[in-house]
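User: Hey, my collaborator sent me this sequence without any context and asked if I could get a structure. I don't really work with proteins. Can you help?
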Amino acid sequence: MGGKMLYEAFKIKEEEECGGDKTCPFDTGTLTVLAIATSIDALAVGLTFSFLQVSIIAPVLTIGAVTFLMSVAGVKLGSTGGHFFEHKMEAAGGLILIFIGLKILLEHLGFF
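Assistant: No problem. I've predicted the 3D structure and written it out in structure-token form, which is a compact way to encode the shape of the chain:
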């Protein structure tokens, strides 16, 4: 994902992307991949809670509230400064995902 974000940040954009409509940032395939990635993460968390045999009401409310607030903040920040930081933020997001992946890999290999 991080590599694709970096590629997309520096790729020359075609004017016909989304049929020339600037309000369409993703196609159906991209949204499907993102939805599956998010769902796999949620599935892992849900399975973990079931194995722990704990009450899930407080964690569900907390996770839901934080997710909602972060989503609203992201939409607000993206709509106000998105056109100015468009390619820079996409590249930064890609680099962050790559570094997170490398950190997890190195931890599992025993380097940290």
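In plain terms: The CA atoms of residues 68 and 74 lie 10 Å apart. You can pass these tokens on to your collaborator as they are.
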